[in-house]
UniProtKB/TrEMBL annotation:
Assigned keywords, A-Z: DNA recombination, DNA-binding
Name listed for the protein in its UniProt record: Site-specific integrase
Stored InterPro entries: DNA_brk_join_enz, Integrase-like_cat_sf, Integrase_catalytic, Integrase_recombinase_N, Tyrosine_recombinase_XerCD
GO MF, one example: DNA binding
GO biological process: DNA integration; DNA recombination
Family the entry assigns: Belongs to the 'phage' integrase family.
Species in which this protein is naturally found: Bifidobacterium pseudolongum
Gene3D superfamilies found in the cross-reference section: 1.10.150.130, Intergrase catalytic core
UniProt keyword Transit peptide present: no
Pfam families: Phage_integrase
């Protein structure tokens, strides 16, 4: 039952909606300047909502975002890799906490979320005034949406104002590839990291997967490497977790790496790391060993090899491996398995440019087949 009554304040006459919640307790909503406004609110938020089973207690929406964020991020700590968990924590602290932590969830509007997303994208809403990449903007908007999804599920708010927000598109960075000759030249310029460059550039694993390899993961007879872990640097310490797609796999290494693999395994126990730094024997390769800056060791190795192809990074060695495998005649399923993609479709989407030549080969092969079957001339002449 809903009852609307007037009352007096210093500012004048106001109206109050008194009603019972689904649990039988009584409450009210105050502050309406007009009786019509009180009636409209009561119809929408109490009468109709109860009939539909969609009733939301307005007071439950007074909770601020911060405790909901803490509950949401705690779930991620259980389900996500530690490196990704810390990425989420850092992204929220740097880009969203100031805006949302102290806000009551029932006061957040879709328009407001849209303006915020635009402001961190162009830098007007960031602490340092610098624009955030599309990846970061999408990440924090999706985090807010996930937090407010929980608020909807808990019946704190009727709908999620962070869903359906326009987000920036990620710019696809053009893949850069090295030829086999260029790869060896860069490896020579990388000094003690030569083995690392060749393994990444010929096998295609991720940096973290290479860093986690141990002697027991090498099958010298079959030329196989077992990829079952990934080592990454999180908050200054190395964290070992599952590979990116969580699936262990075996990959090949070409015979050209056989002598190097045997040398690296010689005299070591099964649990010893396959790759480590000479100045830190027995320790994992760190983030510092995998540079992305223009003045890192990989850029220096490129310059020593006389290669100037824009800003290439160590990750481009993974693309190089894909290119060399396709050039050697590998089919998409083999490349998928080698790279650890979840599906062949993902491999095709990622490296569509590499498989363009397959269409040319298919065209030539079909033309040869038709010519052998003596149907080419008939079709060309318009015959049936």
């Amino acid at each position: 039952m809903v009852n609307i009554a007037s009352y007096q304040t210093k500012a004048g006459k106001r109206y109050r909606v008194r009603y019972r919640k689904p649990d039988g307790s009584q409450t009210d909503k105050r502050g309406f300047k007009r009786k019509l406004d009180a009636e409209t609110w009561a119809a929408e938020h109490v009468t109709v909502a109860k009939a539909r089973g969609e009733y939301i207690d307005p007071r439950d929406g007074n909770i601020t975002v911060r405790p909901l964020y803490e509950a949401w991020i705690a779930k991620k700590r259980i389900s996500a890799k530690e490196s990704y968990y810390h990425t989420l924590e850092g992204a929220w602290a740097a880009n969203a906490a100031d805006m949302w932590d102290s806000r009551r969830v029932n006061t957040i509007t879709r328009e407001e979320v849209q303006r915020w997303a635009a402001s961190i994208s162009d830098g007007t809403g960031t602490r340092d005034g610098r624009p955030r990449s599309a990846t970061v903007v999408i990440r924090v908007v999706d985090m807010l949406a996930g937090i407010l999804d929980d608020a909807v599920s808990d019946r704190r708010i009727p709908s999620n104002p962070a869903r359906g927000i326009a987000k920036p598109r990620k710019r696809k960075r053009r893949h850069m590839y090295l030829t086999a000759a260029e790869l060896y030249a860069v490896a020579d310029g990388a000094k003690w990291r030569r083995d690392i460059v060749l393994t990444l550039g010929l096998c295609g694993m991720r940096w973290g997967e290479l860093a986690a390899l141990r002697v027991r993961d090498v099958d010298l007879e079959r030329h196989r490497l077992h990829i079952g872990a990934s080592a990454s640097t999180v908050a200054g310490k190395v964290v070992v977790s599952d590979p990116k797609t969580y699936d262990a796999r075996s990959i090949m290494y070409p015979e050209a790496l056989d002598a190097m693999m045997r040398r690296r395994c010689e005299g070591k126990s099964d649990d010893d790391l396959l790759f480590d730094a000479p100045h830190r024997p027995g320790e994992y390769l760190s983030l510092a060993d995998c540079p992305t800056s223009h003045d890192g060791w990989f850029s220096v190795a490129l310059r020593r090899a006389g290669i100037d192809r824009g800003h290439m990074t160590v990750h481009d060695l993974r693309h190089t491996a894909a290119s060399l495998m396709v050039s050697a005649g590998a089919n998409v399923k083999a490349v998928q398995r080698q790279l650890g993609h979840r599906s062949a479709a993902m491999t095709l989407d990622t490296y569509a440019d590499l498989f363009d030549a397959d269409l040319d080969d298919l065209s030539a092969a079909m033309s040869d087949m038709l010519a052998r079957e003596h149907v080419g001339k008939t079709w060309a002449d318009g015959g049936a």
